Amino acid sequence: MREPVMIGTGAGRARGLVYGAVLALAAASCADSAASEASARAAAEAIGPPRTVVAVVDFSGSQTSHSVVEARAYLEKVVKGLSYGDRLVLLEMYRSGSRDSVGSFVQDMPEPVRPGAVTSYDRRQLEAARRGVLNALPIFFDPNLVRRVPTTDLLTTMHIAAEHLHDAGEREKELLILSDMLQSTPRFEFEGARRMPPEGWVASQGRQSLLPSLRGTCVLVIGPDHTTPEGQRVRRFWGEYYQAAGATLDTGNYRLRAPTDVVDC
After folding, report:
1. Residue 114 falls within a domain, yes or no?
2. pLDDT in tens, 56-107
3. Rounded CA gap, 181 and 4, in Å?
4. What per-residue string of b and e applies to 132-166 under the rule 16 or more CB within 10 Å gives b?
5. Domain check: are 76 and 140 in the same one?
6. Smallest Cα–Cα separation from 79: which of 134, 40, 13?
7. How many domains does the chain have?
8. Threshold 0.70, pTM exceeds
9. Residues 9-41: pLDDT tens digits?
10. Are residues 150 and 212 in the same domain?
């Protein structure tokens, strides 16, 4: 192999060596930066298990305008985090039974053309699908509905949500409930814990197969006020309810306010 040739002597030669060292360091830095960016991009595009996310939105009169705005902002973050093969179901809260006519929206995210090899075309398709959902949100969050719905039927809504989750197949299951969790129907009134189900009601419903099947579902609730004795009673009810239905509702996932970042359920 030919030896590298050094030109110049004394100070000039020294400057040449320093300049060469600087160039070498700069090249190494650029290589490290490029590798870091490539690594970050690969991590962002890593395709995990696909999910079905059912998001239930509450427009009832007990909801504040601020809570609805916060719910929409959090939902936008969820949409931007959808990945290849995910499914999002938007479901308006039912009001007085299963025959209600309420809004719903279902969107599947595309899968890569070649599994395991994400291309620029795949990225464009995914981004287009996300934009489609984001464009639908203003229609779904109809200002004419917000705070004008007199009743809230969470119990019926959970059965409808369970059917969507049953259709998830092999996808991971997440149930996002944007609500104050106050059932408000002629039979039960949770606001102020005025007419709560009696002791043993959940167990009785389970024995009669009247609970929704939410086995394997991770639940995240945003909006209920659990800072009062009445709010704690409502919280205990839902904790018992979801446990009996086979779902997981961690203590930290029953929140008054939306988290800054999307919760990894």
Report:
1. yes
2. 998 776 667 777 888 899 999 999 999 999 999 999 998 877 777 778 899 9
3. 76
4. ebeebeeebbeeebbeebebbbbbbbbbbbbebbe
5. yes
6. 134
7. 2
8. yes
9. 444 433 343 334 333 434 444 444 444 444 434
10. yes
